Protein 1
Amino acid sequence: MASTLSVPTRAGDRLVAGHHPLGTSTGHLTELRGHWDLLVTRALGVSSIVVELAALSEPEFLTLCDWLSESGRELPFRYLSVHAPSKHRQLPEAELVERIAALPRTVDAVVVHPETIERVERYEALGWRLVLENMDARKPDARTAAELEPYFDALPEAGFVLDVAHVASIDPTMAEADRLLDAFGERLRHVHVSSVDPDCHHVPLTAQDEERFAPVLGRCRDVPWVLEAPLPPR
């Protein structure tokens, strides 16, 4: 079911649930991993407008490539993102980039973790569909605006996805989120929304985090928001 609510102007007014357009990532539906028909059905229960098909491991990604390329495959979403693999990678990087480039043109964005990039120039071929994500406290790179700057300098067409929970894991004040938006806001394509546990795993957004993230999210009202965990009932 598509979200049709307007965006509230104050924290505490169900800011995230009221955003339009709002959709979900399939990454948290671990029990259905790799079953793309079922994952899309579940995603449609959240929104028919926005989805991120998360293929976080290379084997998942290869099955997704095959599934998307099936003759006559049509999806109803207006904004379709694919999360490229960051785990269990075995393909040579050049071949992985070729696989990404061959995704159907209905894919609007392909999210890549910058710290997994071996040779940044290989990704130039992806042009505007390439979207780089800021990383969490577990990662050694690509966490801050300063760390992301060399990637964006080398990839002038690449977009940006802001993960607010990743920012919170390195800077509880969320000041780094403002620095990221100041630096790359013109590239912003969508936003990842959730909370994270102490091990930086995505968990449902807490009321406290929704309020803490509100000023940053208020700067991102013109792009889709993608839930990386279900919203809890309130």
Protein 2
Amino acid sequence: MSIKEKTSEEVLLEEAVSTQNEIVVYNDDVNTFDHVIETLIYACDHTAEQAEQCSLIVHYNGKCTVKTGDYDDLKPRCTMLLEAGLSAEIV
């Protein structure tokens, strides 16, 4: 005859609180694909391929998250996008 022991463990899970923000760029009828791509490369350190993909997503979906990070890093990048004439915000 065998004896089975039941054990119960109390596990504490620490939930990570997301402090990440996002820069979202919105579609407009003013800026060309080339201008958007060049601006994303300059302001967000995108590769040419990343910038092109984001510009297509913006065009077809109306918006795209182009950069994620801490607010202090995103603020000057968003300012560069706005100064270049793009519609963008930090969310």
Protein 3
Amino acid sequence: MRPASTAEGGQDVANVTIKDVARVAQVSVATVSRALNGHGNVAEEVRNRVFAAARELRYTPHAAARSLSSRRTQTLGVVLPDLHGEFFSELMRGIDQAAREHGLHLLVSSYHGDPEEQGAALRAMRGRVDGLLVMSPYMEAPAVLDDSLPMVLINSQCQGESVAALGVDNYGGAFAMVEHLVMCGHRRIAFIAGPAGNFDAHERLRGYREALKRFAPDAESWVVPGDFDEASGHRAGLALLDAAQRPDAVFAANDMMALGCLFAFAHAGVQVPEDVALAGFDDIPMARYVRPSLSTVRVNISELGARAARMLIARLAEGVVVAPQPQALTPELIVRESSASRRRADA
């Protein structure tokens, strides 16, 4: 027969109780319960002590009993437009980290950009999760607003004061990148846009156009369609190569399209940044490892996911009904090799 596992000190893991955790952590049973259930009214040092004691004793709360007593599933639902690509991988890494900090599980669903599948995914979450993290990229997404579960929208158009939302200042990030490219001496700046009807894409295009008017009023807007993936960036790059006059610089609405464009340029023998400067948006991990390294607008994608998850956990713990004002992360301009100034590139 396989021997029963034991915690440090020789105690049978199966017999470890919440009282044992409280004794080792030198706190009350109520404090242990609040810490393990993700309540916000526990000091960080105390929370860390409780988790350390639980790990030492290998204590695992009985999920079924805890769900019955609290009427909670201890699970967060995550509904995303896709799971493919570095952006979503980083986003999920942050969400998972925050959930694990609070002893919570995740139920993840993707609707592949289909609004009807999005609705089906949301309906399937009911009764199975305590709250929802939803990324809905559409300019208008009334189906998302479901009052049956606490919800936090990520990078979505907020529809009402009672909706908790966390996003990115896409407009400000794009505005800063265009200013940088103009200051580098570029005037013919093409923009590879994201999908029509996508909120992030709309805001980045708006930032590009308004910055161009501000910093290069004589320059014409030059927008090429894209779809936030490498293939559409490659197609856009080929279209720009076929233009009667090539741009000085290309600003892609995300890094994946910028990498596709870079491949098209490299295959045609067009050098970046000597012939054409190039920039993206997001700062996915790959952006710093390509050659030339990609100038971009950094969104701390993992932190975006973690902060959204913590917002939802706080709403669940505190029973918040009315959401705070929507919050936005401020992106950071990251200047690398691909956007060198014309003076430097021509030297």
